[in-house]
Write a structure and sequence with these properties.
This protein is about 30% helix and about 25% strand. It is α+β, with helices and mostly antiparallel strands and about 290 residues long. The radius of gyration is 19 Å and the shape is globular.
């Protein structure tokens, strides 16, 4: 299929992009920003999305800050146009190495080579790897709009089904990850490699030797937006020997806590079974294989 008709605009810098978006919105248009286009264009081709105008950020790749990967102490900052593949091949600090490892789950190499971190977050797919990782590592999305820059914490970013807190007249300029997690992993299940995940799970463990003392559990595919699972996190916080018995208890708590949908893809019961399997697998991987 072909997309519905739209007007096309190229932004020369961030200020130009914001001005274009502001003017288009004021004129009653429904503008969308396009960067890699790996999420937006397929939806437009199937007419699931029908923006009346596109503002292309492609020319902003010449701005070093937009494609930079910077580490400063306990923070890792990614420019808005950093691609999935750039993160995949980067040597990141130990506390953020899970970002590189998780990229193997993102589509295929051509998609990873063009799709961007910020684009995935703003798109807001509940199973997108970056959305889970943002919650796992306390990401902060920095967006620039007509009133200047503002910071949006990950726990305030996702509003529901493909809906985020980034306004129509704002452009994301960087994503900052503020919670290092040296013992972290992301696992998912898709019907074919490269397909959208049916369910995915991201885990960050707090370990002292071979004992777990806490952690964070994030799930995708079980709600309209990615979610943390406090019931499963409480099991980790109670502590215990790191191993399959604890991972099973955490996984059971996660599966019992979620209320996933029945849809054309699969049943709620199957999503719960996937939740249990994936949480246990992610715990085991995050712990370095402790059983």
């Amino acid at each position: 299929m072909k997309p519905a008709a739209f007007t096309y605009h190229r932004a020369h810098d961030v200020a130009d992009a914001v001005a274009l978006l502001t003017d288009l919105a004021a004129a009653g248009e429904d503008p969308k920003v396009i960067a890699g286009g790996q999420s937006l264009m397929p939806m437009m081709n199937f007419r699931l999305a029908r923006p009346s105008a596109l503002v292309d950020l492609g020319p902003l790749r010449r701005l070093p800050a937009m494609t930079a990967i910077r580490s400063d102490g306990d923070h890792l900052t990614l420019g808005a146009l950093v691609t999935h593949h750039a993160v995949e091949k980067a040597t990141l600090p130990e506390g953020f190495a899970v970002l590189s490892r998780a990229m193997r789950w993102v589509g295929h190499l051509p998609i990873r080579s063009r799709g961007t971190v910020a684009g995935s977050l703003v798109h807001g797919d509940a199973t997108a790897e970056w959305c889970l990782l943002a919650l796992l590592l306390d990401a902060v999305v920095v967006a620039e709009g007509p009133s200047g820059r503002r910071e949006i914490p990950a726990d305030e970013l996702f509003h529901g089904f493909y809906a985020t807190a980034v306004d129509l007249d704002e452009v994301v300029v960087e994503v900052r990850f503020t919670r290092p997690a040296p013992h972290a992993a992301l696992c998912e299940f898709a019907r074919r490699h490269g397909d959208f995940a049916v369910v995915d799970a991201a885990v960050a463990l707090d370990l002292e030797g071979t004992a777990a003392t806490g952690g964070r559990i994030v799930l995708g595919g079980v709600a309209p937006a990615p979610v943390r699972v406090p019931e499963a996190e409480a099991v980790l916080a109670a502590g215990g020997a790191a191993g399959d018995a604890l991972w099973g208890a955490v996984a059971d708590a996660a599966a019992a806590a979620v209320d996933p949908p029945d849809d054309a893809t699969t049943t709620a019961a199957y999503r719960r079974r996937l939740t249990r399997t994936l949480v246990a697998d992610a715990c085991r991987e995050a712990s370095g294989g402790l059983r």
